[in-house]
Design brief:
Oligomer: single chain
CATH superfamily of the largest domain: Galactose-binding domain-like
Strand order of the largest sheet: 2-1-3-9-6-7
CATH topology of the largest domain: Jelly Rolls
Radius of gyration: 23 Å
Structural class: alpha+beta
CATH class of the largest domain: Mainly Beta
Number of strands: 25
Number of domains: 3
Length: 435
């Protein structure tokens, strides 16, 4: 259970994360905390808070999970609008800005492991969505969506081994024998696996990639490479695995077939140390002249824009409502849509993959004028937004394009430099996988 306290009197004007540690106990003990659920938005907790834009404190308690010792433990936030400042057991964890992207704080060193306590750990989060910051996006009040305050997406405690798969990227190369051919002549699965070792000793072993059928019942292809992760270090391993084209059904809105890609980290004794899996679809996006092609066939996009908002939940839409919306869109013969105008909830992209909906994801660089687009702080925020959006969603088959702005004053000279900088940054980060 969570509780919240809205600072409607602006008592806490300037909160420095580390310096505020000695004020947390008084805050927790003396303020009028009220129960709430998370995910949620503060503006719907009480009618008087609907138009409140400012600082709101959230708190909760939790037990340290069994087996957390000798592991890496982090708290992952799916989305907090806008600035989040967090403390665990009275210690400052960190601060994050960007209202719609995922972030984590390492809490390994701050956990209480006393099993005699009913609740071991107390988490306090300050959420600030006030206006008037010249390096936040969206910058202007004149947006066509509501500036909700709150922890509007899930909060999870994540426990990981000290030697682990820290990240992975998946791509595919699909070659057709000629223009118009429906069946590929060659399919390669490309993957980059990032590894981390947080122990004081080198760890020799191997990393394996395996492609299985939609139900996971049959291995289609696999590969394994030897690797050594140095003490307190990192490593990367690239794979290029040839796939029999006859074993693959290409992903499309009509046939949204997903395969399971599994990565396994194995130590020198043959023991599985870590494993990560992802549902992947094989597809090829192309632009030929002014026409879009999907899997070597001309494809017409029939779509719309969609905000994440609801009269009962605000920005914190439950996954079931997200799914219902997409089913309605499919039934209306929509095959593509844009998330307006910010990174959407994680589950939405999972559903797009499964249902066969092409998706365009956007950062909230919205209605910027020339002066704003010339601001180095705004450019840096836009790049950071893209990086966090990309890092979470880069492996989704549904993603056809990234949108870098909306309704900005593109006729200004500053707009050219702003968008050139963002496009260059995005293409370097994404490797040309999307449009």
């Amino acid at each position: 259970m969570w509780s919240f306290f809205a600072d409607t009197r602006n008592e806490f004007k300037n909160v420095d994360g580390a310096a505020f540690e000695n004020k947390l106990d008084d805050l927790v003990r003396t303020r009028p905390w009220k129960k709430c659920i998370v995910p949620s938005v503060t503006n719907l907790h009480e009618k008087a808070l609907f138009r409140f834009f400012g600082k709101v404190f959230y708190k909760t308690s939790f037990k340290t999970p069994a087996g957390a010792r000798d592991h890496l433990v982090s708290i992952k936030f799916g989305g907090v609008n806008y600035r989040a400042t967090a403390w665990l057991n009275g210690k400052f964890l960190g601060q994050h800005e960007n209202g719609y992207t995922e972030f984590s704080f390492d809490v390994t060193a701050f956990l209480n492991h006393d099993s005699s306590r009913v609740e071991d750990n107390q988490l306090v989060v300050l959420v600030d969505n006030s206006w008037g910051h010249d390096d936040w996006l969206p910058w202007t009040r004149k947006v066509d969506w509501f500036n909700y305050n709150g922890i509007h997406r899930s909060v999870k405690l994540v426990v990981k081994p000290l030697v682990r798969i820290s990240d992975y990227s998946i791509r595919s190369v699909i070659v057709f024998p000629d223009a118009g051919a429906a069946t590929p002549s060659r399919i390669n699965l490309l993957a980059r696996v990032e590894l981390e070792n947080r122990t004081p000793a080198n760890v020799p072993g191997a990393i394996q990639v395996e492609l299985a059928g939609p139900a996971g019942e049959k291995t289609i292809a696999s590969a394994i490479e030897m690797v050594t992760i140095v003490a307190n270090g990192k490593a990367e391993q690239d794979f290029e695995v040839a796939i029999d084209p006859s074993a693959i059904a290409l992903w499309s809105p009509d046939t949204p077939v997903l395969y399971r890609v599994t990565f396994r980290l194995i130590d020198g004794g043959g023991n599985k140390v870590d494993e990560r899996s992802w549902k992947w679809g094989f597809k090829k996006f192309e632009i030929r002249g002014e026409q879009f092609y999907l899997n070597n066939q001309r494809f017409v996009m029939c779509g719309t824009n969609r905000h994440e908002d609801h009269p009962d939940f605000g920005l914190a839409l439950p996954d079931a409502i997200q799914y219902q919306d997409l089913v309605k869109m499919k039934n209306a013969n929509i095959n593509c849509f844009r998330g307006s105008h910010y990174p959407v909830g994680k589950a939405l992209l999972d559903y797009c993959d499964e249902l066969g909906l092409l998706f365009i994801e956007e950062i909230p660089a919205y209605q910027l004028d020339g002066g704003m687009m010339a601001n180095p702080a705004i450019i840096a925020t836009a790049k950071r937004y893209f990086d966090e959006m990309h890092d979470r969603d880069k492996n989704h088959v549904c993603l056809v394009a990234w949108s870098m702005s909306n309704e900005c004053q593109t006729g200004t000279k500053e707009a050219l430099g702003f968008h050139e900088a963002l496009y260059k940054h995005a293409r370097e980060k994404d490797g040309g996988e999307r449009l």
